[in-house]
Amino acid sequence: MKRSTVLGMLAAVALVAAACGTGASPKPSLDMPSSIGEAEDELNLIIWAGYAERGEVDPAYDWVTPFETETGCKVNTTDMGSSAEGVQLMESGQYDGGSFSGNATDRLMASGTVAPVNVSLLSNYANVFEGLKNKAHNSKDGVAYGVPHGRGPNLLAYNTEVVTEAPTSWDPIWEGGSEYAGKISIYGYSDFIADAAIHLMETTPDLKITNPYQLNQAQFDAAVALLEAQRDNGAVYWASYSDQVSGFAAGDLVIGTTWQFQVNLLQAEGEPVEAVLPDEGSTGWSDTWMIHKDAAHPNCMYLWMNHMMSAEANGQATVWFGEAPTSPQACTYAETLSPGHCDLTHATDEAYYSKIWYWATPRADCADTDAATTCKDQAAWTEAWTSLTGS
Amino acid sequence: MTWLHPRRGLQLRLLLAGPIGWLGVVYLGALLILLLNAFWTKDSFTGRVEPFSWTLDAFDSLITVEVYRTIAIRTVVMAILVTATDALIAFPIAYYMARIASARTRGLLVIAVLMPLWAAYLAKVYAWRTIIQGKGPLEWVLAPFGIAGPGLDEIANTWLVLSYLWLPYMILPIYASLERIPGSLLEASSDLGARAGSTFRRVILPLAFPGVVAGSIFTFSLTLGDYITPDLVSDTKFIGNVIYDNSSLGSLPLAAAYSLLPVAIMIVYLLVARRLGAFESL
Amino acid sequence: MVESRAVRIALRIATALAVSFLYMPLVILAIYAFNPSRLLVWPPTGFTLGWFGEAAANPAVIRAVINSLLAGALATSIALVLGTLAAYAVQRYRFFGRESISFLLVLPIALPGVVTGIALRTTFTTFGVDFGLMTIVIGHATFCVVIVYNNVIARLRRLPRSPEEASADLGADAATTFRRITLPGMRTALLSGGLLAFALSFDEVIVTIFTAGPGTQTIPMWIYQAIGRPTELPVVNVVALVLVLLSVIPVWLAQRIAGGEAASLSR
């Protein structure tokens, strides 16, 4: 084999690669299915941990097995640790769909990775609270791009034996946190920069932060400085929910940001852990089941979306994770599993959710139409996070 | 090739078509595509890579943002430390196997070293994780001395576990190179009046050196790229973690650009190692 | 003998320490596998065989083992063919670029797995290849070739050329000579090379993570994921221990086949 031949072959590979590249401009096709066909045999989902339970941890919570029995779609799931990871997995084209938060759904819709959903095919969609339909995070130009799963805030968890008085603000993890040095548990992804920004909105009004996800240079620098102080105070970052659960169980962590899910797991093990939504408000999420535009198993995905809006599945799933159900019927069912669940999660309380900043993607154009303002984009956030945790 | 018999030329082409096609085209082609991605722009909102939109942004970040340099230096230092640690532990056992142990003991020792080498990587890392973590055996052993356990966030854990994982890769090539030294050479050395110390320094060490280099290819390269061990036993970031994080968190050009660093280091390392005769000892 | 008595005793102690170091974590792993407590707490609270039953009945574990066996078998088959062809060409022919072949073959194993993994993943994505068992096999075969190659070329070096030449003189063509003379001579090298390639594939995790599709989890991937789930740890203990014990098989067989002739890494 002559060397030039080998080089020639390599060049050919590169050219073909380029030609088949992923560079096609996003053109979301609006042709939606007009009916749900025969179910395929499989369904591949990207999920937040706890969004597809088979009763392995608690037999009372199993909404996957009934779906499989009923439809014949075998469900495979992959957990995402963060929204960015979920987007990467979805972009790979291997999955039929997933449950995405706002900082993934906006990117997936913009890049044309996900398809619009013909909600008229989904019998349970009519029951869903109107407050969850046709929002910026789950629709485009008035067309639904998915169906809601549930929503909730990121909470402040604390060990009741160490933190004896219930906190009402985020202070204990920021400036006031020195007494918990080395035992502060922090969400280990760049999305957490927004939590610092929310704290700054309260403490440093001069920065004029109006949206914790769209930060100009000065605001961003202040948030990063706050995070650096927190890191130097011994913040422990959790990348998977189980890191946090085992840390709290071992007593290595006593306070920090969490999802209701971990609190439920810890309380089930009898650990003295509680969680609150501090007065400043918080970041949070309103999650959406979306379908890939080239889903290999579109019928199973449609069936799954409908299933996840049913009273039983949505009731179980939202109680299991500790988030708000999406319909009155799901609320009623959830109450049978956990009395008071809908009040606790403020399922219909839009005023409550107005205090929650749903996860959104940081954008260079600040996600507004004012060309004069520029903000730090997602890459800048990721990079700042690498610098924060890597040095 | 022209001087080959035409028939043999054809045979050779047929023989090589498969291996070259696979490694030369599939593997090198994949590396090339990764390389190209390092020079491509990605959409700042969606994170999608746009092919043939050339930019040096990724390299610009790697040079200007300090953390990437810090992590690169940390990783290389760790690779050197692990290699040195393994060489120090491996040499005595390899020497014992090659020159002192009876044939029977030697055979047993070879198997004793091979077995942990082939034992599942994750099982070994996991075993260390259970040893180091809070309420584990290490804490239990240290407690009577009033020493607290290290917990799972010390960078020294990574050094310990990586040294453990790659140790057999160092022992075997050193053993092989020591075993090849003919006894007559050592006799000649001592006949010529060299004392044991100087025979060791001037005959044995130089001849064992290619074995050490061969072993170091593994210890160095495996350390350079591992991200699972640092992730499971400490919370310190290494080159592999940054590559993995950026590829999974939507910054493929940066991951690709950063990948070039360990690739470049290893290619230089391999070329030097080949010159030092290490490939014969692999 | 050059070594003094004191040196020999010191070396014996160093050897004993090194071997204990190599086996200590595996022993701890074995002890935990029989620990009845769901939590990893030292010292163990008792003795049970219960987790073995639970592991054997875990459907995810069973699926992962099947995937690993399939991927290993397919990757090994490809590596056997490619490795043998390359070794035969390099050992029996003279050609331009011959020296570069071994370099090319060793590259996938010498470069960090995370780089190989991302490169393959990016390429598959670019060409729209569906991720699944076949993509895992492609990834594994790439770094298994060198194992077979090293075994076969070592054997070819020692195989006398005369029978091949005699065969050619008697009028056999190259293919017949290869099939009737060379191949039988390489049989044990192929067997041990194949075994080690299989073991390598069975154990690989990083490249697998990048090349696997949904629903094609292998056993190392299962362990990696399960380590993150507190409730699964007792089953992880058992699976990890069984994998360590199983790895004895290829080592032992390969040693038997090779008759202890070579102790180097890949043969």
Question: What do you see in this structure?
Answer:
The complex is a heterotrimer of chains A (about 400), B (about 280) and C (about 270). With about 400 residues, chain A is an alpha/beta fold. Chain A has two domains: about 30-150 and about 285-360, D-Maltodextrin-Binding Protein, domain 2; about 155-260 and about 365-390, 3-Layer(aba) Sandwich (D-Maltodextrin-Binding Protein, domain 2), CATH 3.40.190. Chain A is built from 14 helices and 14 strands. In chain A, strands 1, 2, 3, 4, 7, 13 and 14 form a seven-stranded mixed sheet that branches. In chain A, strands 10-9-11-8-12 form a five-stranded mixed sheet. A two-stranded antiparallel sheet of chain A has the order 5-6. The longest helix of chain A is centred in the N-terminal third of the chain and has 17 residues, at about 5-20. The termini of chain A are far apart. Chain B is about 75% helix and about 5% strand. The longest helix of chain B is centred in the first third of the chain and has 35 residues, at about 65-100. Chain B is globular and about 75 Å long. The model of chain B has no long low-confidence stretch (mean pLDDT about 90). With about 270 residues, chain C is mainly alpha-helical. In chain C, helix 3 (about 60-90) packs parallel to helix 6, helix 3 packs antiparallel against helix 8 and helix 6 (about 135-160) crosses helix 8. Chain C starts with a helix and ends in a 9-residue tail after the last helix. Chains B and C meet through helix 1, helix 3, helix 4, helix 5 and helix 6 of B and helix 1, helix 3, helix 4, helix 5 and helix 6 of C.
Oligomer: heterotrimer
Q: For the record, give the distance between the C-alpha atoms at the N and C termini of chain B, rounded to a whole number.
A: 29 Å
Instruction: Kindly give the count of domains of chain C.
Output: 1
Q: Low-confidence stretches of chain C at least 5 residues in length (pLDDT < 50)? A: 260-267
**Strand coverage percent of chain B:** under 5%
Distance between the termini of chain C: 30 Å
- Which range does the strand content of chain C fall in? under 5%
Major β-sheet profile of chain B: 2 strands, antiparallel
Query: Biggest sheet of chain C, in brief?
Result: none
Could you estimate the helical fraction of the residues of chain C in percent? over 70%
What's the tally of helices of chain B?
12
Please give the CATH class of chain C: Mainly Alpha
> Would you tell me the structural class of the helices and strands of chain B?
mainly alpha
CATH domain class name of the largest domain in chain B? Mainly Alpha
Helix-strand pattern of chain B, N to C? HEEHHHHHHHHHHH
Could you tell me the mean pLDDT of chain B? 88
Structure summary, number of beta strands of chain C: 0
What is the third-level CATH name, the topology of the largest domain in chain B? Answer: MetI-like fold
C-alpha Rg of chain B (nearest Å): 24 Å
